[in-house]
Amino acid sequence: MELKEFDDIEIYKISVNLQRIGVEAVNLALKENRRLDIPNVFSHDNKIYYETNGGCISRISPFDKMKDKLKKAIENSQAYSFYVNNTVF
Questions:
Q1: What is the distance between the alpha carbons of residues 67 and 39, in angstroms, rounded to a whole number?
Q2: In this predicted model, what pLDDT tens digit does every residue of 32-43 receive, in sequence order?
Q3: What is the rounded average pLDDT for all residues in the chain?
């Protein structure tokens, strides 16, 4: 990560706080996915990787096999829904 020089300490404090909030949100999402036994998805060098609840990492998507389980988990989850291509997640 490249360090940038800030002229105003308040801008620096705000940016650090925003980064903290973002990291916290990502960690909560990862934890919630593990609790619901939903694989976490990561990208590295333009390649997609899937991490299962057991910690195994694969390049093969497990989601096609899990559609019914995911739908039930989403319906029972307290998490916020979001839309992608008119599909509710």
A1: 12
A2: 988 888 889 999
A3: 81
Q: What percent of the chain has pLDDT over 90?
A: 36
CA pair distance 76, 37, nearest whole angstrom: 13
Instruction: Tell me whether residue 66 is exposed, middle or buried, using C-beta atoms within 10 angstroms of its C-beta: 0 to 12, 13 to 18, 19 or more.
Output: middle
Instruction: Give strand pairing partners of 44.
Output: 47
d(CA 33, CA 74): 10
The answer to whether 79 and 32 are in contact (CB under 8 A) is yes
DSSP secondary structure letters along the chain: ------S-HHHHHHHHHHHHHHHHHHHHHHHHHHHTT--EEEEETTEEEEE-TTS-EESS--TGGGHHHHHHHHHH--SPP-EETTEE-
Q: What is the pTM of this model?
A: 0.59
Is the model's pLDDT at 8 over the cut of 90?
A: no
Retrieve residue 56's tokens: 């195994």
